[in-house]
Amino acid sequence: MKHQDLWQEILSDVRSILTDLAKSNAKTVSLSPETVALLSHTTDPTVNALKELEQVVSGCTKCPLYATRTQTVFGTGNPHARLMFVGEAPGADEDRQGEPFVGAAGQLLTQIIQKGMKLKRSDVYICNVLKCRPPNNRDPRTDEIEQCRDYLFQQIEWIRPEVICALGAHAARTLLRVQDSTSRLRGKWHFYGTIPVRVTYHPSYLLRCKDDKVKEREEKRKVWEDIQAIMRFLNGEEIPSRDPINDGTYLWQ
Ligand code: URA
């Protein structure tokens, strides 16, 4: 069907829905699956590819986590985001709501984005390495990461962010294929292919530091340094360069 015809069809459907609504005082409206499909149709290939992948993920049974999840948590935000945040795995709140970073750690991440970076959550893209919640919020297991990471890699391929912020060790290790701790990896640029990656502490870690005010301030300062580096990059004020020793890419390769 040509785009113009499709839009004519959508417009005429919407017109008749609104006419019916005006007549009936109804608070809800039922749509046929065909109408829903038409209304949600987009010609943006990135959006369509992400939707298709989300569908695949929602039926995934590759690792045992599918048996205990309420729902999968795919990712949220701008499909053309310049900045992508990658966390570890959904927690209880995310598992219930189907959206990443909506619990306590998510509120802290949202503050970093809004108050720190002066961006909206909807400007960036947010997702996790694992798309299903590990029971009792335990750490992701290696086999779970191995089964799930291709979904993340496909999200990156479709979204093509200009920069990635890896939140915590699991995200950093999955993206960079290293085993180092967050404290060793943070504070410098790494690369996922050609995309610069900045590693920083996971917001949950910052929340766990709350009882030790000195440590909390110190670790928050480091996160702010990492976030500022990302902001400088986004503003064109910093060009990430490869560290020939530390990111595994050697000068003679
Ligand atoms: N922690 C994560 O790593 N991801 C979430 O979505 C929530 C908490």
Q: How would you describe this structure to a colleague?
A:
By secondary structure, the chain is α/β, with parallel strands linked by helices. The protein folds into two domains: 1-42; 44-234, Uracil-DNA glycosylase-like domain (Uracil-DNA Glycosylase, subunit E), CATH 3.40.470.10. It is built from ten helices and six strands; from the N terminus they run H-H-H-E-E-H-H-E-H-E-H-H-E-E-H-H. It has helices spanning 3-24, 33-39, 45-58, 92-97, 104-116, 142-159, 169-176, 182-185, 203-208, 213-234, and strands spanning 76-77, 83-87, 125-128, 163-167, 189-192, 195-200. Strands 1-3-2-4-6-5 form a six-stranded mixed sheet, with helices on both faces. A hairpin with a 2-residue loop joins strand 5 and strand 6. The termini are far apart. Residues 249-253 have low confidence and may be disordered. It binds uracil.
Number of helices: 10
| Tally of strands | 6
The strands making up the biggest β-sheet line up spatially as 1-3-2-4-6-5
Biggest sheet details: 6 strands, mixed
- Parts with pLDDT < 50 across at least 5 consecutive residues: 249-253
* Amount of helix: 40-55%
Summarize the structure.
The chain has 253 residues and is α/β, with parallel strands linked by helices. It folds into 2 domains: 42 residues; 191 residues, 3-Layer(aba) Sandwich (Uracil-DNA Glycosylase, subunit E), CATH 3.40.470.10.
Chain-wise SSE layout:
Blueprint: H1 3-24, H2 33-39, H3 45-58, E1 76-77, E2 83-87, H4 92-97, H5 104-116, E3 125-128, H6 142-159, E4 163-167, H7 169-176, H8 182-185, E5 189-192, E6 195-200, H9 203-208, H10 213-234
Parallel strand pairs: 2-3, 2-4, 4-6
Antiparallel strand pairs: 1-3, 5-6
Helix pairs in contact: 3-6
Bound molecules: uracil (URA).
